[in-house]
Amino acid sequence: QDLKNQDRQTQLVIGASSVPGQCLMPELMAEYLALYPDSHYIQLRGDSIRIHQYLAQGKANLGFVGVATTPKEYNYHPVAEDRLVLITANKEPYQTLHRQGVSGLDLLNMPMILREENSGTRQEMERYLMRNQISVEDLNIIAQIDNPEAIRSSVSRGLGVSIMSVLAAREYLLSGQLLSFELGDQGAFRKIYLCWRKDALLNPTEKKFVRFILDRPLVTTEI
Predict the structure, then answer these.
(1) Share of the chain above pLDDT 70, in %
(2) pTM value?
(3) Which residues contact 133 (CB under 8 A, 6 or more apart)?
């Protein structure tokens, strides 16, 4: 680690699953470092399961995850409220379907690109499908990709559709590269959490960062 020789009392080692790592942490860390310019951080990436492993192994004391798996052992503080939508290329026939107000639930027969099984997005998607009595095996899966950026790019080029969080798709939606379809009246929602082990001994900078997060308003992901 390039920063290992610097003062560990001002160092943060933070694990982050894909969506919070790419779409939430840059904003949070810019804000934090503006307040505490003597701090520095190392970011470890992985899916939500991998981030919990980093915390369990002591490779990081703090992590951003999309699923609260073990509340008996970890503190989970919600940082953002997110919802899942079905994303498509901004081209026909999806443009016409979008104008008609078609639900994403009606587009699940399209060629589908999925996240990896251990991602928080994938787990929430599977819960949504179960509520609608749909199995993953019922989908026309053409690819499984562990990188949200690669999924966004593939969908924008018309390779298939995908179920993705608004937080992850936001920039592509605002730029007009993608269209989003709501997943029915009930929809699919999830939270992104800052988590840390209940028995972890946090250094002063880690405690300061936790306080910074606790004092912030919840991030919402409206388009």
Answers:
(1) 95
(2) 0.82
(3) none
